[in-house]
Inverse folding.
């Protein structure tokens, strides 16, 4: 498969350019790609303000820069993110991304933190299989997981998310479009859009891939209020999104009590657990042991601080002191824990 490759330059920095793959103009051979490329490039540029085009060419998609994929079970692949906060060095590639190859179609579980990463995931998939891209599932609203979705939609995939996601994304999209390029660099973010899903699910939903099926399970407010898990029936792999952090400090963006309730619920039968951040584990118990300790300690520290009757600003040093023994093994512990303390405080203040 050949795709148009557009040289897209930042309007604000015309020498800052990046190659953008345009699967909407893909063709079976070079000639078909050349026929479709001009209109595909014009249409894409018109839909992505802030960029100017500096020519395009056609190239085989399976030869484009590709993410490394680890096969954790037959047909189940994971791209491991850097277990650290967003930075110019990691270019937004911090989340784990999943791929399940069925007999009829390929599913993607979290399409990446930028357009650039989504393109590299698509190239990695195409280097392994020519099967159609089917469901592109967003485990929750955070951009480090979902900002690569648009290139998969252009490649024919159906972007699917929790029913609560469109409204939640609408509230924060504009802010994220400003803050994330500031954190990772404007060129790493070039051409990235935070698109809405084509389909949403409010209840447990099974999607057949041929030879295996994915079960999508929406979860009440926990890490965010848009979380869902994805379980692959053939391999017994559970993709938890950010309901499980390993190595990178958990971020409480919706409900600490809801998250602890999810952790306490009976675990699904799993052979592999793919967390949102950190290494793959063999069981949910193993995957969540450290996170469970962290979140329970946060709850206890905030409750103890609330019991003293002082305000949040006065309580933060005591909360941080109570949490400090847990710091080893967690990246970005101080900054994230300070934010989590404020979030948990707001949640627990009225309990
Ligand atoms: Zn997240």
């Amino acid at each position: 498969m050949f795709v148009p490759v557009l040289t897209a330059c930042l309007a604000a920095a015309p020498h800052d350019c990046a190659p953008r793959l345009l699967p909407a103009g893909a063709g079976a051979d070079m000639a078909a790609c050349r026929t479709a490329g001009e209109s595909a490039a014009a249409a894409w540029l018109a839909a992505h303000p802030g960029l100017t085009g500096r020519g395009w060419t056609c190239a085989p998609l399976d030869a484009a820069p590709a993410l490394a994929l680890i096969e954790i079970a037959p047909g189940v692949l994971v791209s491991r993110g850097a277990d650290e906060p967003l930075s110019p060095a990691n270019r937004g590639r911090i989340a784990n991304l999943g791929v399940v190859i069925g007999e009829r179609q390929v599913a993607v579980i979290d399409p990446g933190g930028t357009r650039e990463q989504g393109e590299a995931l698509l190239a990695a998939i195409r280097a392994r299989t020519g099967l159609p891209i089917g469901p592109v599932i967003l485990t929750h609203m955070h951009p480090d997981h979902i900002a690569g979705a648009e290139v998969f939609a252009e490649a024919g995939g159906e972007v699917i998310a929790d029913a609560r996601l469109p409204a939640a994304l609408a509230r924060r999209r504009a802010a994220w479009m400003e803050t994330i390029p500031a954190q990772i660099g404007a060129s790493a973010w070039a051409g990235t859009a935070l698109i809405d899903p084509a389909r949403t699910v409010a209840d447990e939903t099974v999607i057949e891939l041929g030879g295996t099926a994915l079960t999508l399970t929406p979860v009440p407010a926990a890490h965010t209020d848009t979380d869902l898990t994805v379980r692959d029936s053939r391999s017994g792999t559970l993709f938890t999104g950010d309901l499980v952090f390993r190595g990178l400090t958990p971020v409480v963006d919706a409900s600490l009590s809801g998250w602890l309730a999810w952790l306490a619920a009976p675990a699904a039968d799993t052979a592999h657990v793919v967390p949102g951040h950190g290494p793959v584990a063999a069981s949910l118990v193993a995957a969540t042991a450290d996170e469970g300790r962290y979140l329970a300690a946060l709850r206890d520290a905030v409750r103890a601080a609330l019991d003293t009757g002082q305000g949040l600003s006065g309580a933060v040093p005591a909360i941080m002191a109570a949490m400090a023994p847990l710091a080893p093994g967690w990246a970005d512990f101080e900054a994230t824990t300070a934010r989590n303390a404020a979030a948990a405080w707001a949640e627990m203040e009225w309990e």
